[in-house]
Amino acid sequence: MRLSLLSGLVLSSISCTIYAQSVTLYGVVDTGVEVVDHVGAKGQTLARMPANSGLIPSRWGLRGVENLGNGLQAVFVLENGFNTRGGDISQGGRLFGRQSWVGLQNGWGTLSFGRQYTMTTYALADSEISGPAVYSLGSFDNYLPNARADNSVAYKGRFGPVTVGAMYSFGRDSAGTGNSPGQGTCAGQVAGDFQQCRNLSALLRYDSAHFGAAASYEDQRGGQNAAFSFFDGFAPAPLGRNGRDVRTQLNAYAKFSGVKFDAGWLGRRVEPGEGGPASVRSDLYFAGVSYLVTPAFQVEGEAFRMINQQHDTRATMGMLRAAYFLSKRTAAYVQGAFLANSRHAAYSVSAGGPGATPGVGMNQTGALVGLSHSF
């Protein structure tokens, strides 16, 4: 009732001052109970409610559109991320840490300004099966479900089955609270240093009724207090002002008769810069299948393989998930995963927040039962 009253007051105030505008309140509330084994050097068992994600990270937001005439529209999105288990705000305590942007759009695409997803996110969205769930690509690279940048200008347009996009950030962490896990802080926008903390990403994807493919490129520059992490048990290291953290990906999917297949590769190359460690490269492969057994019951599975030769860390993970849709907005689900680490690796099976990292070389199993509701 409080939420309904608050949203009514917000929308009423907007409608009194701005005409011909549509504002939508939306969100997801998602959480579950997780059990993870082989946590820490002693290999203990952890039972918890994960902080970051069960099936989909919890959020609420406002999306607005105003017609300006001649096919031109003003658009905005304000999106807050929160942890259901405690009600605290995610993304370093930012009020609208998931998205905060305003822009203009017409038949030629959308030009937007603010804190936004990078093109890495749009290349994965609707293509890769595991999504931002607790057992997913985020188990190997926790940047992927957090690929956003402050101070950015972005363009994205769809022309028939083809989507193109590009984004440029003048400084990816203006709040100074850490833009994503393992990145340190990198505010940028320093006078006389044009490259510090910059972010550049680009997207090209194709989507048809039964097939799709996407490619993306993202280049993050280093700066004061910036860092990089491969989430493999090695401590984060500094990313100097002339350093680069580059991710390139290719993926594809096919779907028919309730069945969807996906496969892809994400390559990462870090050049720490002068005075830093040697360059490090990783390759992450994935392939999966999703099957809508009935309109109310869906099962999914995906396999992942990570290879980092410089750190001599490798891991393989398999994920299984089943969801029962109680309605169009509510789903009960169960998911589990097993991750096998190589002798020097300590990848965690769970992307549900800190505290679940295994001992070096230990395999790990995770299981979660949860409930998700969207509005």
Task: Describe the fold and architecture.
With 375 residues, the chain is mainly β. It has one domain (38-374): Porin (Beta Barrel). Helix content is 6%, strand content 52%. It contains two helices and 19 strands. The protein has helices at residues 2-17, 119-124, and strands spanning 21-39, 44-48, 59-69, 72-81, 99-106, 109-117, 148-159, 162-169, 199-207, 211-221, 227-228, 237-238, 244-256, 259-271, 280-294, 297-308, 313-325, 330-341, 364-374. The strands form two sheets. Strands 1-3-4-5-6-7-8-9-10-13-14-15-16-17-18-19 form a 16-stranded antiparallel barrel. The chain has a two-stranded antiparallel ribbon with strand order 11-12. Strand 9 (199-207) and strand 10 form a beta hairpin. The model is unreliable at 1-19 (pLDDT under 50).
Q: Write down the CATH topology.
A: Porin
Structural category is mainly beta
Poorly predicted sequence stretches spanning 5 or more consecutive residues = 1-19
- Whole-number average pLDDT? 92
What CATH architecture label applies? Beta Barrel
If helices are DSSP runs of H or I spanning 4 or more residues, what is the number of helices?
2
User: What oligomeric state is this?
Assistant: single chain
